[in-house]
Backbone:
């Protein structure tokens, strides 16, 4: 007997390179010390988060690393066929940072473009403590503090893939097709900011 996997797609999870992480961390620290200096990005986003800011000022510096991860994705998941075909170059089009506080959240949503990503810069909690402090502590699906994908499997059934993104994920990037629905659940165990960077890769106009 032999078992065979249906051709499908997934996500890439890897470490952010040192130079890009340094650029992002410096910019995050500058904004954290003076939120008034940031350009608000909330109107472009689904997040129920008060402090979300554009990172256009450092986009070109971070673009090479992001595009390299996109290249790896295309090699790893050839089953991913974008909804439109173009011979144009791809670019980092949208780029922003989220400073998420306790009880804030991102509802289920997707993005525009070819690829989207999240970079976890500073997650101020451990997932075990989150689960223990969640109002859903007696739930059979306690997802406090998690990042989660929603998708339809090979049988047409709706399913999810939760990722327990806590402080162990700091400095990592998760890259996925832009149309993939995902959500960020609220956290409860810390008064510090959950700092993440996100963006969209698309064809050059």
Residues:
């Amino acid at each position: 007997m032999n078992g065979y996997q249906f051709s499908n797609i997934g996500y890439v999870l890897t470490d952010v390179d040192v130079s890009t992480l340094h650029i992002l961390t410096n910019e995050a620290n500058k904004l954290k010390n003076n939120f008034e200096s940031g350009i608000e990005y909330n109107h472009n986003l689904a997040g129920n988060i008060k402090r979300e800011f554009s990172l256009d000022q450092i986009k070109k510096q971070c673009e090479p690393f992001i595009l390299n991860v996109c290249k790896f994705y295309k090699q790893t998941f050839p089953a991913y066929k974008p909804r439109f075909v173009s011979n144009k170059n791809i670019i980092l089009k949208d780029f922003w940072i989220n400073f998420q506080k306790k009880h804030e959240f991102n509802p289920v949503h997707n993005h525009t473009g070819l690829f989207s990503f999240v970079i976890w810069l500073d997650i101020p909690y451990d997932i075990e403590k989150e689960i223990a402090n969640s109002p859903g502590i007696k739930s059979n699906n306690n997802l406090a503090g998690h990042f989660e994908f929603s998708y339809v499997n090979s049988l047409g059934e709706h399913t999810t893939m939760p990722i327990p993104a806590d402080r162990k994920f700091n400095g990592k990037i998760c890259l996925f097709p832009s149309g993939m629905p995902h959500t960020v659940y609220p956290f409860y165990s810390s008064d510090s900011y959950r700092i993440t960077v996100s963006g969209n890769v698309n064809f050059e106009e």
